[in-house]
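Let's practice the habit of predicting before peeking. Look at the sequence and jot down your guess about where helices and strands might fall. Then scroll down.
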Amino acid sequence: MTETPTDFIRKIINDDLASGKNGDRVATRFPPEPNGYLHIGHAKSICLNFGIAIDYKGTCNLRFDDTNPTKEEQEYVDAIREDVHWLGFDWAEREFYASDYYQQLYDYAIQLIKEGKAYVCSLSADEIREYRGTLTEPGKDSPYRNRTVEENLQLFENMAAGKFEDGAHVLRAKIDMASPNMNMRDPAIYRIKRAHHQRTGDKWCIYPMYDYAHCVSDSIEHITHSICTLEFEDHRPLYDWFLDELGVKHHPQQIEFARLNFTYTVMSKRKLLQLVEEGHVSGWDDPRMPTLAGFRRKGFTPSAIREMCNRVGIAKANSTVDIALLDFCQREDLNKSATRVMAVLDPVKLVVTNYPEGQTEELDADNNPEDENAGKRKIPFSRELYIERSDFMEDAPKKFFRLSPGKEVRLKHAYYVTCTDVIKDENGDIVEIHCTYDPQTKGGWSDDGRKVKGTLHWVSAEHALDAEVRLFEHLFTQEFPEDTPEGETFLSNINPKSLQVLTGCKIEPSLQVASVEDRFQFLRTGYFCIDSKDSSSEKLIFNRIVGLKDSWAKKQKKAA
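Done guessing? Here is the structure:
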């Protein structure tokens, strides 16, 4: 037991343990439906369920609620496993599926029919909706609600035997069509669906509904605390009704918490699937997608996502979190661990005219000034270099502290240089900048006390590697993409500038051996990593993880 509860869920668990409830056991589960990739909102549930199991030395199952075979695929199962492991959690041998319990679920349904608590309804889907009523008007009893137990048993067995067409009948719980809770108005338990299931094949042509399968699966697995997001709060009476009426030995407690929502993001799996299928993104793992696979490919670290979940906390009321908080957590993490390197994204040649032709020297560069154990590396310096085109201005204003004619600046880790000339092509575009260097300023420092305000990053032209660099912005232009005028959808808010591909970039040669696990700070530009999917030894591709600008801290300072 934890000494001090850090949220209301742990307070409930502490109270249960103090009272001896559940025999001092704590058992949770993370129960995704394998109908899409996990998104960043799922990270909160993963961290909560597995975190509670760790805190209380309990267990957390990974259970796939696979009750809808038409939308579920093995690809999604594999991706979910990978995402949970990537976040740092393990379920050992406790991987389960709702389909593991199909026979038990069917037997329980027979029990409900025999006890007069379920019936086969032959209304069409539209008629069921019509009979269900509204939030202000009670529903009406189905004309099939009073079928005899024998008739219901025979019809249900025939449903399972494949003797009816899809949609001809459903099995419904007999509860209360006048209940103020719409979920209690004789909800469906089983429907006929001739669909091949990824695990059970064609054994079944009837499939249990989620609300029924979920609570029974929790009970079968002896879950103690069934933790779910707030939209299931109105489903809790149904969760309890099924387990009470079935008289199960293990009755978990359902507890709801606020889901994780972000600005500039959509979290609906249906809408994420639409983005993929309609080609608005390159796939579920597109770095602009809010999926865990997308964040992983973009270069985010699991520790940053766990820290974000910790900062957001566990609440009872829904809210929307500024996506800048996630970037802040990632930036803090990478600031401590990422190797500093030099990369020129929009290069222009800089020729050091008084540096000996053909000469190369190795200069020392700090790998990470925030980490005293990070050490140094060697970077080559030569007569011809590349600098950022934006770091030079021919007719510079007074407060332009970078390179311009006659001005002296520092080349990071190298020397002071002074611009002496500019070479242009026939169109008037600058193709070369000429300068001289002061050999007494090696390392980028002067012993004579003179100071320069500008420090530029650079790479040696002879040794530079070619690279493609991908810069990402929010996938949507609006903070709340789903808030649209009538006649428009969230797709109207897609940001046409969400991906910018830069070719012809020049990077220092140490990056030749970079791996997908490595993260780097490109000096003055941002944090980057190798693209795990498209990059190769023949074509280096880097993704920007986050920029250096900290909009979250700025907003917090302004708010204070």
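How did you do? The chain has 13 helices and 27 strands.
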